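Z., the sequence and structure:
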Amino acid sequence: MLGAAEKNEALLAMADRLVADADAILAANALDVEAAEGSISEVMIDRLRLDKKRIEGMSDGIRQVAALPDPVGRELDKVIRPSGIVVTKLSVPIGVVAIIYESRPNVTSDAAALCIKSGNVCVLRIGKEAYRSARAIVEAMRAGLACVGLDRDLINLVEDTSRQSASDIMTATGLVDLLIPRGGKGLIDACVQNAKVPCIQTGTGICHVYADAAADSKMALKIIENAKCSRPSVCNAMEVCLVNGGIAQSFLPELWQKLVAERPVNPVLFKLDERSYAILGGRENCVPAGEGDFDREFLDYVMAVKVVDSVQQAVEHIAVHSTGHSDCIVTEDEAAASYFVSAVDSAAVYVNASTRFTDGGEFGLGCEMGISTQKLHARGPMGLNELTSYKYVVRGEGQIR
């Protein structure tokens, strides 16, 4: 097992090689982008596209992971029993961690860095749209490992991007210790339903922002614009806006002005329930919500809007439609905020802040393996601690039972 110093040296070498090999990575990425244009949306192209700034960000993420405490070998608990035995609970690596993900090349470096630091071997399987980019990134990081004398196969990329390779990973009992899918609902559902190896459900984000009756309207407008528009193709982007009926008549026209009239590029399409359509109907980019629109991860400049009468109704709607990722209330009423925080059962619950903060880097984890929307083992942004398990070490002096 590698020590902390060896792992950190490897991570820094990987970060250096990413920057040094930026031209090769960008050339590979340009081929992926060219092949994908016309077949996927512009916001998904944005997820796929790399530039030097993004590569530097990937490198910085690896360096941040290197600076974090080593998660392996921590003493989690210790107890001396009446028999005299000493029972110590120690953190240990999980083993082989497989990640199946789609068109986000930066996941490649995040996943590899977290696996190296947590003492795990990673197996990466990316979708065909971003395979050339991922291969160039992996080759750079493997070269970094070789520079410090470590086995290049601590980081592995599956060459086959067919469905069969994904199925093989899902059923690789005895070879894969943990499977983490990162992508859309289809990928996550396929893994959860078909995996025979342990699987953590991540990613799908039907995130809500509720503008309460006691909301500061300027704050609410700023938060909603950021949560919806700063990068709509990611899982922590807002998909549903709930507005209290007490402010809807004044607030919804302001929201439309902010997200449609003042946005000549990428105006937001409003999908409105009956009450909000009664206020905004007839305006540009305002259509009635269709069946399923409040259960859809748009990943685009599209937002479902509903008017509710209370924080209780907002919570009830979220309980039915949220995927348990990130949900927010904007309010100056502490009682409403407290109720929302206690009643909403999501991995991240916000008061007066954008859901876009649900991110490993923003939470101080360096980067993230994914955002778990389940409750067992890991929840929310998955960092180093979530990539370890534990074992009990028992010491005695000849005791028998």
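The mean pLDDT is 94. The two ends are 33 Å apart (CA to CA).

Let me know what you think.
H.
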